[in-house]
Each structure stands twice: as structure tokens, then as C-alpha cells.
């Protein structure tokens, strides 16, 4: 702890007397400064015990009051007036002004040199720095041993809480609470979800300091809380929160920084291990998609505890052109693995760079936690597109993958967040096609007919629609139009002339019907 005015006054060798501000003696003293200027504030930083003989202070009550106000405004923690030179005793006006501002005023007897007070404070500051360094090394050694032990990050959190005399909590990359100490602090740590989420959206490392309810934390206590993101490549890998009764001291800050460094290294090491596991999982997924399920089962049994069994789905996600969507795609993979880990649900994930940007393939249980987590992430992030296969057995994963790719293509063309394969095989074909492409095709194909209808007799577009809808039946189509069937035949002949195409061609009929229907959508 830094020296305080109280500890300086308690030094009997100095013979100091407190004349004012006795209720504020616990203020820490950061330095001792001697000045005879009537305004020494340009040379002060705050936190000083200022010593003076008062040579230039004079005896004016107004002048002494202004002097005290200047010192208090500058952050001086105490004023010591040496008697016996300029002043035989401390002026009462100075005592009154100090009492008014709550500034501790000390009487320094003539026999006590100012240098003795400076040495006392300097020795105490040196002792504080030595203690801080010693404590920091001890804490770093203790935390390092904890990080290398069996419990790893959980042990670091537990030791950190004990060192700070408060509580500590560790969150994973998604903001979920993964470790807390002591156990009773779980509720307090849970209330920081909003703050952790804010840091999750900032580059790492970043931090926030909060003071209980004054900062919007819904808690009955007034803990001083620090939340710190953990990560070495600007992407948060986790978050550390600590709560203490008072503000963290410089020594405690060293301890906290040591814990942050160790947890970051641990998370980064875990990330490298996870990356290796991801590469192995991706290889397994490609084996399954290639139909080598039996071999994949043998390999996965020893590495991953087996493959997903029962009814599965294949999901294929793609990122848009914006850089942030690539990060969202990575988050989708992380959230999928976290969702599976929480409930013990097996999955396979593979990341790849496609021709049009990064993609992610996930093989997971049908309507399981992973499936739902992927759908949730896609809904949260604009620019992601997801294709989902129909439910299938693991041996049918290759077919399911092709279904998911087709569903993804439909989602990307239609500007949709996600498309299920069941949607691709049901309903109208038109919603599955790119709107701009269909519109341009329809306008170009039907333009000669519409230009004719604007300038000449005979409604060729309506007549063509009626004829196609009746599958080329002349009498039925003519009845729908209210014209003679010979009139309709003439109009269809005119359609062929303007388009330069034969209506006997099935492909031509299909294209014309598609063009007419697109104008109705």
C-alpha cells in the first residue's frame, strides 16, 4: 500500500501536528514537494504533500484562502507549514481555509527538517514498489503453475480471485460463462453478459471498467468490475472479468495483467490444437461425403468418439463480399462447435475457399443443437447464406451435400438468409430463379408482342397466355378470350412471325410461359 498522510503523521520522529482535515488523512501520498511560491500549482501533478515556510504567503485572510483553494484544486493531498522562520505559528486564517476545503494541514516544528519528511515518504514509496514487484513475481509464478496444472484456465481463475480478494470469471469466445471463482460469484458474472457482448464486437485486446449499479449492472453490490477481452490476433478468444470491493491497486493490476497474458497464451494454444482438430474433422467430413463411411468411422472412433449417428443434415454456408461476413462465417463455425460441445452432440465441420469466397460445411444431427445454432447465426448476420439438405442417413451424406449446395445457390440468387432443400422441390419454380435475370429475359422475349399491342389491333400477349394455359386447345382458349377460333389462329400466326419462333416447339412454349408468369410475380 502507498504511504498515507496518517502513516507520515504517526512517525513520532517527525513531531507533526494535524491542525485541519483530520478526516482525510487516509489519502495516499505520491510525492513530497517543497515550494515557497504563492502559486506552485504549475509544478504539481496531484497527490503531493506540499511543504512550505510561507515566506510569500503574507497574513491576509483572503490571500491565504486563495492559496489553499489553489492547492486543493490542483489535487494536493496535504499542506505542511514549517514554523519558526516566516511564521512563529500557523495563521488561524490558513487553518480555517484548510478546514473549509477539507485539506489536511500539518504543523511542522522548526526542529523537523523538510528533508526528513521527504526521506520518510521516499522510503515508504520504495518499500511499496519493492512489495509490488515481489508480489507480482510471486503471483506470476503462482498463476503460471496453475496454468500448467491439470485444471488449467479454471485454476488460474481460482488463484486470481484469491489474489485480488474478490471474484473472477472466464467466458468463452461466444460470451458463455466457462469458469468462475468463488462459486457464489456465478450470478454476478452472469449479469455482465451485455458488457461481454459489447467487447465481443470490438478488436482484442480491449477492456471496460464498471462500478456496480452506477454503470448499469443489475446487482445489489457496488463491486468495482474490470472486463478484459483475450486474444492475440484482434479477434476475441475469450473474456476475463474480475470484481473487487475497491478499485484495483497498481500491484493488483500487475497480477491481473499476468493472468490476462497467461489466459491469452492458453487460449491461443488451445486454438492451435482446435485448428489441428478442425483439419482432421474436415478430412473426415470429406471421407464421409465421398462415401467412405466405414473408414471414417474407424478413424473417428479413436479421435472424436465417433461420428454423428441417426438422421443427419448437411449445411453449406457462404459469406458475401463484405469482409465482415467472412468473420461471421467463422463465428458460425465456432458457435456450431460450441453448441455441439455443450450437449455432447457430435458434428463434422470443414472450412474451404470457394470460387466466390469462403464457405463452411457442417454435418450435424437433424434439428439438433448445432442445426439450430447455425440457423440462428445466419439470421443474426446479413450477408451470410445457408443451404440445408433434407434429412438423411450418414451413408447418404454425399447426396445430402449436393442438396445443400443446390439450396445454397437458391438462397444466394434470391437474396435469402437460408433455404431448406424441401423448399427447392416444392412450390413454384419462379421464386427459385434470380429475379433480375428472369425479368430481363421476359422483357426481351415479349417486347415485340407488347410493342405490337400498343400500336396495332389484337391483344397478342393476352391471347398467347390464354392459348398456352389451355395447352394449345383452340376452342377452349378462344372461348376464354371471347373471340372466334379462326381469330385466335391468326393471332398465334402473328406471334410466330414477330418472334421468329415456332409454337410447335415445346422449348419455345416453356420459355414463353415462363416469361408470361414472371410478369405476374
UniProtKB/TrEMBL annotation:
Pfam families linked to this entry: HTH_30, PucR
UniProt xrefs under InterPro entries: CdaR-like_regulators, PucR_C-HTH_dom, PucR_C-HTH_sf, PucR_dom
Ranges of residues in domain Purine catabolism PurC-like: 8-125
Residue ranges of every copy of the PucR C-terminal helix-turn-helix domain listed in the record: 460-517
Protein name, entry field: PucR family transcriptional regulator
Origin species: Kitasatospora camelliae
Amino acid at each position: 500500500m502507498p504511504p498515507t498522510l496518517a502513516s507520515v503523521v504517526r512517525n513520532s520522529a517527525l513531531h507533526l501536528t494535524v491542525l485541519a482535515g483530520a478526516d482525510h488523512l487516509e489519502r495516499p501520498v505520491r510525492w513530497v514537494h517543497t515550494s515557497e511560491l504563492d502559486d506552485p500549482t504549475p509544478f504539481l501533478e496531484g497527490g503531493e504533500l506540499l511543504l512550505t515556510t510561507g515566506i510569500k504567503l503574507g497574513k491576509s485572510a483572503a490571500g491565504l484562502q486563495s492559496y489553499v483553494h489553489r492547492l486543493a484544486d490542483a489535487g494536493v493531498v496535504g499542506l505542511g507549514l514549517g514554523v519558526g522562520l516566516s511564521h512563529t505559528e500557523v495563521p488561524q486564517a490558513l487553518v480555517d481555509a484548510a478546514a473549509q476545503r477539507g485539506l489536511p494541514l500539518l504543523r511542522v516544528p522548526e526542529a523537523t527538517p523538510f528533508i526528513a519528511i521527504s526521506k520518510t515518504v521516499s522510503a515508504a514509496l520504495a518499500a511499496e514498489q519493492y512489495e509490488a514487484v515481489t508480489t507480482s513475481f510471486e503471483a506470476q509464478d503462482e498463476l503460471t503453475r496453475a496454468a500448467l496444472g491439470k485444471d488449467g484456465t479454471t485454476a488460474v481463475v481460482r488463484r486470481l480471485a484469491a489474489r485480488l480478494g474478490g471474484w473472477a470469471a472466464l467466458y468463452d469466445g461466444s460470451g458463455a460463462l466457462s469458469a468462475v471463482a468463488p462459486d457464489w460469484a456465478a450470478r454476478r458474472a452472469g449479469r455482465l453478459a451485455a458488457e461481454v457482448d459489447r467487447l465481443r464486437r470490438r478488436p482484442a485486446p480491449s477492456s471496460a471498467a464498471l462500478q456496480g449499479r452506477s454503470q448499469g449492472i443489475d446487482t445489489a453490490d457496488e463491486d468495482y468490475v474490470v472486463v478484459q477481452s483475450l486474444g492475440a490476433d484482434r479477434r476475441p478468444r475469450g473474456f476475463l472479468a474480475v470484481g473487487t470491493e475497491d478499485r484495483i491497486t497498481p500491484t493488483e493490476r500487475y497480477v491481473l495483467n499476468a493472468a490476462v497474458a497467461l489466459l491469452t497464451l492458453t487460449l491461443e494454444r488451445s486454438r492451435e490444437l482446435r485448428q489441428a482438430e478442425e483439419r482432421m474433422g474436415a478430412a473426415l467430413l470429406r471421407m464421409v461425403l465421398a462415401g467412405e463411411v466405414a473408414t471414417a468411422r474407424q478413424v473417428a472412433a479413436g479421435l472424436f468418439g465417433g461420428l454423428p449417428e441417426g438422421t443427419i443434415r448437411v449445411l453449406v454456408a457462404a459469406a458475401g463480399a463484405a469482409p465482415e461476413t467472412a468473420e461471421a462465417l467463422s463465428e458460425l463455425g465456432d458457435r456450431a462447435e460450441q453448441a455441439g460441445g455443450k450437449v455432447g452432440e457430435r458434428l463434422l465441420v470443414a472450412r474451404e475457399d470457394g470460387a466466390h469466397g469462403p464457405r463452411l460445411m457442417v454435418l450435424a444431427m437433424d434439428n439438433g443443437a448445432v442445426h439450430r445454432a447455425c440457423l440462428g447465426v445466419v439470421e443474426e448476420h446479413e450477408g451470410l447464406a445457408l443451404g440445408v439438405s433434407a434429412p438423411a442417413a450418414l451413408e447418404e451424406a454425399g447426396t445430402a451435400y449436393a442438396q445443400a449446395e443446390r439450396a445454397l445457390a437458391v438462397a444466394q440468387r434470391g437474396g435469402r438468409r437460408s433455404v431448406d432443400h424441401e423448399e427447392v422441390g416444392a412450390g413454384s419454380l419462379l421464386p427459385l430463379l434470380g429475379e433480375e435475370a428472369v425479368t430481363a429475359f421476359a422483357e426481351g422475349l415479349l417486347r415485340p408482342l407488347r410493342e405490337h399491342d400498343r400500336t396495332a389491333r389484337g391483344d397478342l400477349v393476352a391471347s398467347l397466355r390464354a392459348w398456352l394455359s389451355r395447352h394449345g386447345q383452340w376452342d377452349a382458349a378462344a372461348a376464354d378470350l371471347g373471340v372466334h377460333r379462326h381469330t385466335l389462329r391468326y393471332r398465334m400466326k402473328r406471334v410466330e412471325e414477330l418472334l421468329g419462333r415456332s409454337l410447335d416447339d415445346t422449348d419455345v412454349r416453356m420459355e414463353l410461359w415462363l416469361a408470361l408468369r414472371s410478369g405476374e410475380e
